[in-house]
Amino acid sequence: MRVVIGEDSLLLRAGVARLLEDAGLEVVAQAGDAEDLMRKVRAHKPDVAVVDIRMPPGNADDGLRAAREMRAELPDVGVLVLSQYAEEHYVTQLLQDGAEGVGYLLKERIADVDRFVDSVRRVADGGSALDPEIVALMMGRREDGPLEALTEREREVLGLMAEGRTNRGIAGELYVSERAVERHVTAIFGKLGLPTGAGDHRRVLAVLAYLGDA
Amino acid sequence: MSDLKAVLNAALDCVVMMDHEGRIVGINPAAERTFAISEDDARGREMAEVIIPPTLRGAHRAGLKRLLDGGEPHVLDRRIEVTAQRADGALVQVELTITRLDIEGPPLFVGYLRDIGERIEADEALRRSRLQLLRATDDARRRLERDLHDGAQQRLVGLALTLRMARAQLDQDPAAAVALLDEAQEDLASATEELRELARGLHPAVLTDGGLGAALRGLIARLPLDVSVSGVPPDRLPIDVESTAYFVVAEGLTNVVRYADARRAAVELTLRDGRLAIEVRDGGRGGADPDAGTGLRGLAARVAVHEGTLSVTSPPGEGTTVRVEVPCAL
User: Fold this and answer.
1) Kind of pairing, strands A2-6 and A48-52?
2) Is A59 on the interface with B (CB under 8 A)?
3) What interface predicted TM-score (ipTM) does this complex get?
4) First-to-final CA distance of chain A
5) Residue B265: its pLDDT value, please?
6) Helix (H) or strand (E) holding A48
7) Is-contact B248 B292, C-beta < 8 A?
8) Which neighbouring-strand residues pair with B282?
9) Counting C-beta atoms within 10 Å of the first and last residue's C-beta, which end of chain A has fewer, N or C?
């Protein structure tokens, strides 16, 4: 699995590169600003680019803009955006053209190495990875509505689905069988009136569309 | 002569004409307004009695006498600031120039006066608003210091201790060391989260990147409150106006959470005629004192810099409305 890293802090860049390499991924290039990042992503066409949202030259959301450019230009390259902030605005922008091969995580999640590497792999494989805090914000906004009809466990499952986790991932996280997760998913989609039967990627999008639509 | 009359009538400054005996010969409409007296009522009366405060009349009369006796004029053809008096007794600060008309016969004096009360008041208001801003900045710094001290800083000190303890346990009791390291990791996560929220409170990056609507959405998602937002302008506004609007809403909603005992609030923005109105309403307990908190004072200072207005309506039991209007050139 080939990775390009875009991060202006040398320390973080080296740290992320090292922990990804330790996990068996191949870091083919690193960039310290958005323009250099675009060049290297175009040249290497990696499986995934890990991108800091705040980068030179503008030191605003240059990384996010680069990420969107990649999505439009190189749809096969997964993009995992790292941000200092849990803001729906950035996530909404990022997900505008679908949730396949996209991720948005708070920077501090790097510290949980196993989960971070898992997120990188998921995004590289065309899945998604959304920070739990973003999901919590989105779910919090809909608390009074139909989410009240969900059981505590169903809400947990919904949150993990929104994070982009697969049934197997959710089962592992909650210490239940995959079969049990499937039952919960069916119940949730029924209660919220969402179309069932979609694959993992489409399902994330349905859930996010539902949560974001408030 | 009618041309001269027209000029006098249109003049923004007050013009008062006085004869050698100190009697008023005529005044223009500006003077009528400033001194609250009609020309008919003023004509023929001693000027000292009409527009000079009692305490200064003696000096005025002495000066006029000295002038007529051929003495050196003190006030002629110079610009001076003096206190004058209106017909209703109120005092006005005026800027005054007196000239002597070059005509035959007994001398005629013309006084040009300008009411500078408003200017003085404006200067004073400006000084007050600067001071307010300075205080608000200091308040904000103090709050920030306290938040850092009570929050992240404490956690980091605790973290240092936990790590030291973990190191000490490493040889004898590795299991205990692992537990301590886990604890350290949690502390570190909490400190990171607190710093993140603190940074957001100082100035949310999303406000710069995504504008007012995006920033308000992020703000509201974090509050334990059901907030409806309407009227967010579709286009970006000047960055300082966006910031002010954001902080008005943030402060207003924070106060709703803290004091209003309400579950819902409404935020309404209206952009019209080059002004942005920001209103934060709740249906809570009301009775808010706008002078009580540093937050609202800080907002008032901020709004004053924009030459905007801030009002707080908060009758007990009927909720609170904070309304701010600031000029917003597009």
Assistant:
1) parallel
2) no
3) 0.78
4) 37
5) 95
6) strand A48-52
7) no
8) B265, B320
9) C
pLDDT band at A214 (very low <50, low <70, confident <90, very high): very low
- Distance (Å, rounded) from C-alpha B72 to C-alpha B66? 8
> Which residues between 147 and 186 in chain A have a beta carbon less than 8 angstroms from any beta carbon of chain B?
none
Q: Are B237 and B269 in contact (CB under 8 A)?
A: no
For the range A134-138, what are the long-range contacts, defined as Cβ-Cβ under 8 Å and sequence gap of 24 or more? A134/A86, A134/A88, A134/A91, A134/A104, A135/A159, A135/A162, A135/A163, A135/A211, A137/A86, A137/A88, A137/B218, A137/B221, A137/B222, A138/A88, A138/A162, A138/A208, A138/A211, A138/A212, A138/A214, A138/B221
Beta strands in chain B (DSSP E): 14-19, 24-27, 80-85, 91-101, 108-115, 226-230, 264-272, 275-282, 309-313, 320-327
Q: Which of A105, A83, A76 is nearest to A164 (CA)?
A: A105
Q: Which amino acid is at A98?
A: G
CB pairs under 8 A between A and B: 55
Residue the block writes with tokens 């001693």: B46
What is the arithmetic mean of pLDDT over B41-65?
A: 89
CB B275 within 8 A of CB B325: yes
Q: Six-digit token pair at B109?
A: 């004096």
Backbone angles phi, psi at B184, to 5 degrees: -60, -40
Strands B14-19 and B108-115 turn out to be antiparallel
Q: What is the mean pLDDT of residues B243-263?
A: 92
**CA-to-CA distance for A100 and A104, rounded, in angstroms?**
12
* Half-sphere exposure in the Cβ direction for B71 (13 Å, CA): 11
Rounded to a whole number, what is the distance in Å from the CA of A104 to chain B's nearest CA?
A: 15
Which residue type is seen at A2? Answer: R
| CB of B264 closer than 8 Å to CB of B282 | yes
**This prediction's pTM:** 0.74
What whole-number distance in Å separates Cα of residue B198 and Cα of residue B145?
Answer: 11
Mean pLDDT, rounded, of chain B: 89
Q: Is A61 on the interface with B (CB under 8 A)?
A: yes
Contacting B residues, span 49-68, partner chain A, CB-CB under 8 Å? none
From A137's Cα to the closest Cα of chain B, the distance in A is 6
**Nearest-angstrom CA–CA distance, A200 and A181:** 13
- For chain B, what percent of residues have pLDDT higher than 90? 43
pLDDT, tens digit (0-9, with 9 covering 90-100), for B162-216: 999 999 999 999 999 999 999 998 889 888 888 988 888 888 999 999 999 999 9
B127 min Cα distance to partner chain A (Å): 36
Q: Are B256 and B320 in contact (CB under 8 A)?
A: yes
Length of chain A: 214
